[in-house]
C-alpha cells in the first residue's frame, strides 16, 4: 500500500502462560526450537485492494498459534451511518446524552461450527430509547441435520473423482507468495524480533495499536458466539 511494512504488518511470538487453566510453554521453550529463534507464531496485517471497488476499505488479517480458542472466521464490519434513526439515551443524574449504536456485522464462521451470523442493533420495545445488539444466525449442522463432513473428507473424494474445483491453483499460490515474500524478506533483513504475546491471548499489544490508530479494535470471537438452539 506504499507505506513501510513496519506500519501495516506485525509479527508475534507466544510466551509461556496458560490456556484453559493448563500451563503451556513459550515458543522458545518448545522442543527443537532454538533459544534465539525469530520465527513468528503470529502475524497481523492491514492491507488494501488496489481497485475501484474496494478503494478506501481496509482489510485486517490475523492468524496465529496458542490463541484462546481455535476459530476461523471472516467478519464484515459495516460502517456507522452519518445519521442514526435511534440512539440510546444515557443519563447520569440530570445530565443525559445520546450514545450511538454498535455498528452491524456479518460473520462467516468456518470453524469450529459452520455458521453465518448477522449482528444488528435494534431498539428495545418500550417507551425509552434503548438500543440492543441482537444476532440472527444460520447454522449448517442445524439446517441440514447430522454431522457435516470433515474438511479433508470432501477433498479426498474430489481427488478420487479428479475434480479440482475446491483446490488452490498454482497461480493463486504464486500470487500469495508474491505478496508475503517481501514482508518475510524485510523481517529477515532487518532482524525484526516478533512482538511477544502471552499464550491464551489474541496477540501482542502492537497488533492492537494497528487498529487503534483508526478507531477500530480486533474481534474477540468465542465458540459460544454461535448460539445453541
- State the end-to-end CA separation: 44 Å
Percent in strands: 25-35%
Give, in order, the helices and strands.
EEEEEEEEEEEHHHEH
In CATH, what is the class? Alpha Beta
Helical content stands at 10-25%
In total, how many domains does the architecture comprise?
A: 1
Mean pLDDT rating: 87
Gyration radius from CA atoms, angstroms: 22 Å
How is the CATH topology named?
A: Dihydrodipicolinate Reductase, domain 2
- Reading side by side through the largest sheet, how are the strands ordered? 5-4-1-12
CATH homologous superfamily annotation: Dihydrodipicolinate Reductase, domain 2
Task: Report the total helices.
Answer: 4
Q: TL;DR of this structure?
A:
Helix content is 19%, strand content 31%. The chain is built from 4 helices and 12 strands.
Strand and helix layout:
Elements (H helix, E strand, L loop, with lengths): L8 E7 L1 E3 L2 E3 L17 E6 L11 E6 L7 E6 L10 E5 L2 E5 L5 E7 L3 E9 L7 E9 H5 L6 H11 L8 H20 L5 E4 L6 H8 L17
Parallel strand pairs: 1-12
Antiparallel strand pairs: 1-4, 2-3, 4-5, 6-9, 7-8, 9-10, 10-11
Walk me through this protein's architecture.
Helix content is 19%, strand content 31%. A hairpin with a 3-residue loop joins strand 9 and strand 10 (115-123). It has a four-stranded mixed sheet with strand order 5-4-1-12, with helices on one face. The chain has a four-stranded antiparallel sheet with strand order 6-9-10-11. With 229 residues, it is an alpha+beta fold. It has helices at 140-144, 151-161, 170-189, 205-212; strands at residues 9-15, 17-19, 22-24, 42-47, 59-64, 72-77, 88-92, 95-99, 105-111, 115-123, 131-139, 195-198. It has a single domain, classed as Dihydrodipicolinate Reductase, domain 2, CATH 3.30.360. The termini are far apart. The mean pLDDT is 87. 13% of the residues are buried.
